[in-house]
Amino acid sequence: MSRAILARLIALVVITLAGVYYISFDAIGVHVFSQPYKVNAVFPAIVNGQPSGAGGLYSDAYVTYRGVEVGKVGSLQLHQNEVVAVLDIDHGTKIPKNVSAHVKELTAAAEQYVDLVPEGSDPPGQYLTSGDKITDTTIPISVGTLLNSLNSLVNSLSPADLNTLTSSLATGLQDAGGNLHQIIADGNTLATALQTAIPGTQQLINAGNTVLSTFNATSNDFAQFSTNLDLLSQQVKQSNSDLVALLQNGAAAGTALNNFLKQNGNATIGLINDLSASTNVAYQRQPAIQALFEVLPLFATDVSETVSNGQVHFQLDFNTASPVCPYIPTLPTPTQVDGNPADLNRNCSTEAPNLLQRGADKAPTPANP
């Protein structure tokens, strides 16, 4: 046998095996090593008092999950109150247990298929296995039922009434194309504005939620405030005569005060100016005043100790041996007091802290002399 004939025979065998594989596994759907697992979808047998027929579902119909084909309908089992569709799910396909089965139609020609839709999140590892049941199912309205309902609706309408309606619509909408276009354009603008305002609306809703939460948290305070306001209103009601008298007396007092200010305006202004000057001096001498107030409690204590039974007891000790300041102070003459500033330099040059010396140099100086 030549090499050319042997090569042709090998190619023929390869092509034959590929064809058998395609016909067996892809066209016919024979699975030898990867058998599909079966899941039962339970559909109602009666819908609106009429047999549902599982929405026209048939064997070998497609089964999809999230729009992807995952198997086929193996068989249909008819029972008294339900129709069980045995779904052959491809081997290795993981579908959550919390799914619903919906019979849908590809086209108006009623090419039904089963669509599996997840209804929520399942814990990890919770997937459909062989023998599980799907009880959350829906069946669409068949095309025949829809056409019958439409036919009944059309037959219930009177041709004369339809003619009147169409004539009225034609008359009402005549030359209204521009207005209709403007309405549609305004509706589009409104929809765009609403979409643009979605973030602000969400923020407003969140802020409203915060306000309501705060109001709910302070409801007891508002209730207490309302109670107190009610008590205040009752007290004001009871004291109405007193308030009227107060207002009348206040008016009289205001008149009297006005007359007093008119008669003594200049004197009042002078008094206020003097008080301002005194306050300014006190502010400048604040350290000395503070020192005075610090000494006053000690002075009061000493005075209280010297008074007994209505008599004052005191003792004077004179240091005649070694006086601290050996000078004789002279009092200023009246001319010095009236015409010249006071002599603030009179002090003791000798330091004797134990004798608590006094003098102009020991006085606290003002902050802003």
Describe the structure.
By secondary structure, this protein is α/β, with parallel strands linked by helices. Helix content is 50%, strand content 15%. The protein has ten helices and twelve strands. The strands form three sheets. The protein has an eight-stranded mixed sheet, with no helix packed on it. Strands 2-3 form a two-stranded antiparallel sheet. Strands 11-12 form a two-stranded antiparallel ribbon. The longest helix has 25 residues, at 3-27. The chain is elongated, with a radius of gyration of 55 Å. 7% of the residues are buried. Residues 327-338 have low confidence and may be disordered.
Chart the SSEs and their pairings.
Layout: H1 3-27, E1 37-44, E2 46-47, E3 50-51, E4 62-65, E5 68-78, E6 82-89, E7 99-105, E8 112-118, E9 133-134, E10 137-138, H2 143-156, H3 159-172, H4 177-196, H5 198-217, H6 219-238, H7 240-263, H8 265-284, H9 286-306, E11 307-308, E12 311-312, H10 334-339
Parallel strand pairs: 1-9, 4-8, 7-10
Antiparallel strand pairs: 1-6, 2-3, 4-5, 5-6, 7-8, 11-12
* Helical content class: 40-55%
Structural class label:
alpha/beta
> Total strand count, please?
12
Q: Assign an overall shape.
A: elongated
Mean pLDDT: 78
Tell me the distance between the termini. Answer: 135 Å
Question: Helix-strand pattern, N to C?
Answer: HEEEEEEEEEEHHHHHHHHEEH
Strands across the major sheet, in which order?
Answer: 9-1-6-5-4-8-7-10
Low-confidence stretches are: 327-338
Output the number of helix runs.
Answer: 10
Main sheet record: 8 strands, mixed
Using the CA coordinates, give the radius of gyration. 55 Å
Percent of residues in beta strands?
Answer: 15-25%
